[in-house]
Amino acid sequence: MRVLVSGGAGYIGSHTVLSLVASGHDVVVVDDFSNSKPTVMGRVESLSGTHVPVHAIDLTDAEKTERLFAHERFDAVVHFAGLKAVGESVAKPLAYYRNNLDSTLSLLEAMRRHDVPRLVFSSSATVYGEKAPVPYREDYDFLSSSSPYGQTKVMIERIMADAAAATDGLKVALLRYFNPVGAHPSGQIGEDPQGIPNNLMPFLAQVAVGKRDKLVVFGDDYPTADGTCERDYLHVEDLAAGHVAALQHLDAMAEPVRAFNLGTGTGTSVLQMLHAFERAVGRELPYEVGPRRAGDLAAFWADPTRAQTELGWRAEKTIDDMCADTWRWQSANPQGFPGA
Ligand code: UD1
User: Fold this and answer.
1) Of 11, 128, 136, 149, which one is the catalytic site residue?
2) Does the C-beta of 198 come closer than 6 Å to ligand 1?
3) Catalytic status, residue 149
4) Which of 47, 135, 262, 285 is deepest in the core (most CB within 10 A)?
5) In this protein, which residues make up the domain named NAD-dependent epimerase/dehydratase (predicted)?
6) Do residues 110 and 242 both lie within one domain?
7) Strand pairing partners for 136?
């Protein structure tokens, strides 16, 4: 298939581009580089051994989006592009709703006008909100999220479901990621957050490489085995493979839209993750326990049964693989991707 990957220069997008190319698909990337560097694409091309055309377009610009679809033919779209920082979304909700919803609407309108029949969407376990019982299952009906970022995922899932119901032939897979971490085993591409990382794994990697003094563990008085929060971490390579599996499953799907959890089904605590990272680095890392972070849930993980039975997909890499690959990437690229 000829696949348009929006946000293909980002962390998960770039790994998915490699998996798509390795599975024999032709990939075209659209990215506005607002949270990624163009130098990512050179690494993706050298790792894949293929030229990957890139369009530097902001998808909220409906005219430019339309022009892209008028000039190129796509069999499918994998939609990653979007703003994704939870804290920033609380401070700037309108920017998040404007960007994430407008870009999705431009894309869906262009897909409808040009009869593109397949869509895979980058959703998140955040759509299960604060009340869903764990493990999270896709048939839980009361989706809501505590942050504007998360609400954009809930709304986009709904918009896509309505569009699929109204468009003959359109099939949509909504992929609800748990906590993606790790990097390509080559150490050439990985997560490159701008500024202070919000998430655990890139923060740990920056402590290990000496860019940050110490990890602050956000609370150790949760009702979990060691008192720190538990999450379902999965390797970004497994996650990328999940996108390829979903894309290839769409035509066989009975319903126009279907959600799939992409997770391992196992929780790992913050302290367990710290110690796994210490094993990868080969020394102890400094940390202290601080107060809880507002909005954090004690523990959640996926029920990944649906993805296993329907997509034939299963997360295979271990926590130690995730840490070793993150460390290979971070130690080889202490400043992330080069700027130009
Ligand atoms: C967060 C978002 C989630 C989003 C996901 C994207 C929140 C509340 N949730 O998930 O909506 O989809 O990122 O990857 O922000 N931790 C520390 N110290 C740190 C950083 C994190 O102790 O410096 C702890 C957190 O308290 C949490 C765990 O590590 O228990 C994982 O945190 P993080 O990587 O930010 O992911 P989530 O909060 O699960």
Assistant:
1) 149
2) yes
3) yes
4) 262
5) 3-263
6) yes
7) 302
